[in-house]
Amino acid sequence: MLLKTSILAVATALFAMPSTLTAQQPSQPCNTGPYIVFFEWNDSELSREAREVLDDVVNFYAACGTASVLMAGHADRSQPVRQSVKISQERVDAVAEYLVSKGLPGSRMASAALGSSQPRVETPDGVREMENRRVEINFAPPGRW
């Protein structure tokens, strides 16, 4: 009887605590970014490369819990300020639409259209520079912008 009780106790303990029997998956740290997608001149269409970066954003977001998704749209200095802000907003909108379509919560997104005010590469006015035509994406604690 004692042997039967011991086997039953061990079996019960093993099935009651399956987490001790399975390998623990290492938790992936939250990579807050920046993630950067670039655009052709005067365009807000996502390229194949941009979609690949955004797919990475979606995958990395899973490790960040309830983080806010902060997006900043930029333009080069080849156009007047009003037009560069407009195209920056269109780029941010395209990125946000893609991320939402992949399951990121739109309610956790915040964006700004910065036009040509923060170039990655300094250029004179009127110069087209691809590195300045971009959207930068970062993750931050919830509610921070």
TrEMBL record:
<dbReference type="InterPro" id="IPR036737">
    <property type="entry name" value="OmpA-like_sf"/>
</dbReference>
<dbReference type="GO" id="GO:0009279">
    <property type="term" value="C:cell outer membrane"/>
</dbReference>
<dbReference type="InterPro" id="IPR006665">
    <property type="entry name" value="OmpA-like"/>
</dbReference>
<keyword id="KW-0472">Membrane</keyword>
<dbReference type="InterPro" id="IPR050330">
    <property type="entry name" value="Bact_OuterMem_StrucFunc"/>
</dbReference>
<feature type="domain" description="OmpA-like">
    <location>
        <begin position="26"/>
        <end position="143"/>
    </location>
</feature>
<keyword id="KW-0998">Cell outer membrane</keyword>
<protein>
    <submittedName>
        <fullName>OmpA family protein</fullName>
    </submittedName>
</protein>
<keyword id="KW-0732">Signal</keyword>
<dbReference type="Pfam" id="PF00691">
    <property type="entry name" value="OmpA"/>
</dbReference>
<dbReference type="InterPro" id="IPR006664">
    <property type="entry name" value="OMP_bac"/>
</dbReference>
<feature type="signal peptide">
    <location>
        <begin position="1"/>
        <end position="23"/>
    </location>
</feature>
